[in-house]
Amino acid sequence: MVEVREAVWRRPAGWWTHNKDYTLFMLREVGGTLCAVYAILLLGLLMEYNAGKAAYEGYLAFLQTPAMLVIQGIILVFVVVHAFTWFLLIGKSQAVMSSYRAPAWTRIFGLMIVVFLGASAAVLYLVFGGL
Amino acid sequence: MAEEARSEFDARYNPGHEVIRVQAARKEREVVLEPLFWGLFSLGGFLTAFLLPITILALSFFVPLGFWPADRIGYEWLTSAMNPAAPNLQGLLVRAFFLLVIAGGLFHGAHRFKYMLMEAGARKHESGLGVILYGLAILGSLGALYYAVKGWIL
């Protein structure tokens, strides 16, 4: 049997600041975590809606306080970074994943942006009733 | 013992197979739930990447920025949007949308947060972190499911 040795990379503190790609990876990690924070805010919206009109409108007013708008703005920036770095990753990983000649990552990234814009337009029209 | 294949041109060559055999020989416990939660994390990442940015803009910023009047996301709007009798199944679509975005976001964020905490030094507590974070994601998703079907099935 072939001997298999484990090669564990012991990462120093702050390893993700040493390289632009690692930093982007960590920003995507933060963005992924903040997806859950906004999901909790959305769950709160449904809970307050079920509690009645006054509760729902009170919750909307809370979401529109300056502090909450700043928090949601930070969440939005990280969620967009999370989405776009993932689209980048899909393009660049094809060279590793594909057995055939991979297309240029820019073409895949562009395609993902088109799908993203299409999905956003669908949500805007089907869920929120258009612009 | 038969000689191992050492070249990718040899039909017996399968380096991944060797790794699996070594782990089995060590009698490490079989990982069952991790692939399941990784799948939910992956699905959640897909859903949130495509659906969450426009949702945050519409629900949190279009009204304060003056792009929409306040009643565009008011109580009557949500009542109408979630009405199960709405034409073209719109009510069911909106309910499914909220369920998928909330559950997807919770599972994606729970998994990411778990590994961030492990990177920060909590690697010894992986099992406990999994129970707490995935447990919260399951509870939140069940809550979203309840509100998604309330007034329609319940």
Describe it.
The complex is a heterodimer of chains A (131) and B (154). With 131 residues, chain A is mainly α. Chain A has helices at 20-51, 53-63, 66-97, 105-126. Helix content of chain A is 74%, strand content 0%. The radius of gyration of chain A is 21 Å and the shape is extended. Chain B has 154 residues and is an all-alpha fold. The N and C termini of chain B lie far apart (64 Å). The relative contact order of chain B is 0.10. At the A-B interface, helix 1, helix 2, helix 3 and helix 4 of A face helix 1, helix 2, helix 3, helix 4 and helix 5 of B.
CATH top-level class of chain A = Mainly Alpha
Tally of structural domains of chain B: 1
- Sheet-strand content of chain A, in percent, reads under 5%
Taken from the alpha-carbon principal axes, the silhouette of chain B is elongated
Low-confidence stretches of chain A: none
Question: Approximately how much beta-strand content do the residues of chain B carry?
Answer: under 5%
Largest sheet of chain B: none
Q: Please, how many helices of chain A?
A: 4
CATH fold name of chain A: 3 helical TM bundles of succinate and fumarate reductases
Helical amount of chain A: over 70%
User: Largest interface, counted with CB-CB under 8 A?
Assistant: A-B, 49 and 60 residues
Order of H and E elements of chain B: HHHHH
| CATH architectural type of chain B | Up-down Bundle
Percentage of residues in helical conformation of chain B: 55-70%
